[in-house]
Write a structure and sequence with these properties.
Layout lengths: L7 H26 L3 H21 L3 H20 L6 H22 L7 H5 L8 H20 L1 H9 L1 H6 L4 H23 L4 H15 L3 H26 L3 H20 L3
């Protein structure tokens, strides 16, 4: 694979993989501790509505998916702040509606045959320089927010009632977590696709959770683990000419299986 690094598209793919892996590790940890795993899949599929609208109106796909995903996150935050136990119901509804909107707008686009595979299973080898700027900016924003408001985010994630008694603005941080989750899901779609995004956000986090003693260490360890899976997955896909997103997830799942076998040994 070393010889492949002379190509710009492979350099972009590796850099995108690392950026998305660390963003997914941090946000995936928050998704896990907030018990919102279904949220990742819901927003990923909902963002397809933004993809369809972007195709129809002719503006950047990333922009359309991001705006739609953030809109869905804000709606979910409004509907579930007081009743988090019903979040799955609202996510399921928004999931279906978002997908339907995307399909309809793509159907209405004259003479356009969208490459569904690139959105369903990712297209990391097609990452552009502008995509990298977006990914780097989002990761920088996530790092800044998590570092500055770590204690507040920690309190809201584990015990929102206690956080409220401490004077923490629970509504603000709950909504912020959802918005960052939505944007992370959108960039993860570029790497592994909307079908596989849940695995990227949860498998490395699960392993990191077993090896960490705090949320902070879990965030960054899961980012490192996800980066390793991405690197090995890209090598695997390049060597055997396979879809990169699916290869990354297969490597992640296999590694999880090995980890479970090792840790369950007496």
């Amino acid at each position: 694979m070393i010889e492949a690094l002379q190509f710009e598209f492979m350099q972009h793919a590796l850099l995108a993989g690392f950026l998305v892996s660390f963003a997914s590790g941090i946000i995936g940890s928050l998704i896990i501790v907030n018990r919102m795993v279904f949220l990742a899949g819901g927003i990923a599929h909902t963002s397809y509505g933004g993809i369809g609208m972007a195709v129809y109106f002719g503006f950047p796909i990333f922009l359309g998916a991001s705006l739609f995903a953030v809109g869905a996150a804000l709606l979910i935050a409004t509907l579930t702040l007081k009743s988090r136990h019903r979040i799955d119901t609202f996510i399921g509804l928004i999931w279906a509606v978002g997908m339907a909107i995307g399909v309809i707008f793509i159907d209405l686009t004259p003479g356009y045959n969208v490459d569904l595979m690139s959105y369903l299973f990712g297209s990391i080898l097609a990452v552009s320089r502008m995509d990298l700027y977006f990914m780097a900016t989002l990761l920088g924003l996530i790092l800044l927010i998590v570092t500055f408001w770590y204690r507040d985010i920690l309190a809201v994630s584990y015990d929102s009632e206690y956080a409220s008694l401490r004077g923490v603005n629970v509504r603000f941080f709950y909504t912020l977590i959802l918005i960052l989750s939505a944007l992370t899901v959108v960039i993860a779609i570029k790497v592994v696709g909307l079908i596989l995004v849940i695995a990227m956000l949860t498998i490395p986090v699960y392993i990191a959770e077993k090896l960490s003693s705090s949320l902070f260490s879990m965030m960054f360890l899961s980012g490192g683990i996800a980066s390793l899976f991405t690197l090995v997955g890209l090598w695997f896909s390049y060597t055997y000419n396979l879809t990169s997103g699916a290869s990354i997830i297969i490597v992640s799942a296999f590694s999880l299986g090995v980890f479970l076998l090792i840790t369950k040994k007496p």
